[in-house]
Design goal:
single chain, 394 residues, FAD/NAD(P)-binding domain, Elongation Factor Tu (Ef-tu), domain 3, 2 domains, seven-stranded mixed sheet, seven-stranded antiparallel sheet, 13 helices, 31% helix, elongated
């Protein structure tokens, strides 16, 4: 039996951040993780370069049933605080579009910073140590693993969601929450590519690898303006991943294929400058040729020259291109999703400490909670923020 002040379940972004903070307060801390190495999800994020935060992070960039909860969390440890931390460690990083920050070299650099912080704080990390059970004791909690038994005053669950099962994702965090009477909201894959119905899949199968800058909207009116990417299974790309968090089964998504162009005006201009040119060839100058050919072959766009278009055809074509609707068959699921939507109801937790209101000394942080950020470093920032917050109190 090993006695420590704090056990953290999960050596991911939130868990490691929390462990270091608790250790700096003089608490004895052990982090338990079933994997062979810490920070596995960090290592594969951002194409191996880890989009570790976003300069524009604000509560508006998150989905949560309790808006105040996210606001409270982000206000006490901001993106600027994390940037200051990586600057102190000499991390080489660069800015990308929309406020995203990436490592210059490797995501391993972020993991190394977290491990260094844990080492300096005296936090111990026990890998290949799967948690089998958790129980309440007179003085706190007992955690039984494959290798050992631990007694602790404070137990922090940072076990992640259900995404990327090949990295060891498991529902243990939700099970612990339910064991202690906390409400767990339904979960689903988010920031995830769409799959298409068979007829659409066959229709667009030749477009795999083609990317188009678009504005994609969900039925609830949420919209994102970034690229979509055709894949051999369906649709992906930043705009699709973003909108997937707002999409529900059976709904359509609306895609403005030319968000920067007023097609009606463009057609009027072409009638002046290239009236005899085929509509198909004209449109191929502003949208991918193979995509236009598929629309042409399926009679979605008229087979005529620009000057032969009637007013009603112009209206129909403009509406089609600016409001192209497609109904996904589903998503690729947790296998390729970046985050899990839903999870532990944040109304069950203190927005200041992340302690469960129904179980003193039990904390839940990170993806296991019902907080889901947009694509672009927002989910990592939430991990840093809630890890820091819980680490001040656990």
């Amino acid at each position: 039996m090993t006695q420590v002040d704090v056990i953290v379940i999960g050596a991911g972004a939130a868990g490691l951040m929390c462990a270091a903070q608790a250790g700096y307060r003089g608490r004895s801390v052990t982090v338990l993780d079933m994997g062979k190495k810490p920070g596995r999800k960090i290592l594969i994020s951002g194409g191996g370069r880890c989009n570790f935060t976003n300069e524009n992070a604000s509560p508006e960039n998150y989905l949560c049933g309790n808006h105040h909860f996210v606001k409270s969390c982000l206000s006490r440890y901001t993106q600027h605080d994390f940037i200051e931390l990586v600057d102190r460690h000499g991390l080489a990083y660069h800015h990308k579009t929309l406020g995203q920050l990436f490592c210059d070299n490797s995501a391993q650099d972020i993991v190394d910073i977290l491990l260094t912080e844990c080492e300096w704080a005296g936090a111990n990390i026990a890998l290949r140590n799967e948690v089998l059970s958790v129980a309440r004791t007179d003085s706190g909690y007992r955690v039984i693993t494959e290798q050992n038994s631990y007694d602790c005053e404070s137990l922090v669950v940072a076990a992640g969601g259900l995404t990327m099962p090949k990295l060891g994702a498991s529902p243990i965090g939700y099970k612990i929450a339910e064991q202690f009477g906390l409400n767990v909201l339904p979960t689903m894959a988010a920031l995830v590519p769409f799959t298409l119905h068979q007829h659409d899949k066959e229709r667009f199968e030749g477009l795999s690898g083609i990317s188009i800058p678009c504005a994609v909207s969900s039925e609830n009116g949420t919209s994102f303006k970034e690229n979509i990417l055709f894949t051999h299974r369906g649709l992906s790309g930043p705009a699709i991943l973003q909108i997937s968090s707002f999409w529900r089964a059976g709904q359509a998504v609306t895609i403005n294929l030319l968000p920067e162009v007023d097609l009606k005006e463009q057609l009027a201009q072409w009638r002046e400058t290239q009236a005899q040119k085929s509509l198909k060839n004209s449109l191929s100058a502003i949208l991918p040729k193979r995509f236009i050919e598929i629309l042409h072959d399926s009679k979605a766009i008229p087979d005529c020259n620009v000057n032969q278009l009637t007013h009603s055809q112009i209206d129909e074509l403009t509406n089609y291109i600016h409001n192209w609707q497609i109904k996904p068959n589903g998503t690729e699921g947790y296998r390729t999703a970046e985050v899990t939507l839903g999870g532990i109801d944040t109304n069950e937790l203190s927005s200041k400490t992340f302690e469960a209101k129904k179980a003193q000394g039990l904390y839940f942080i990170g993806e296991v909670t019902d907080v889901t950020g947009w694509l672009g470093g927002y989910n990592f920032q939430y991990a840093w923020s809630c890890g820091f917050a819980a680490g001040q109190y656990c």
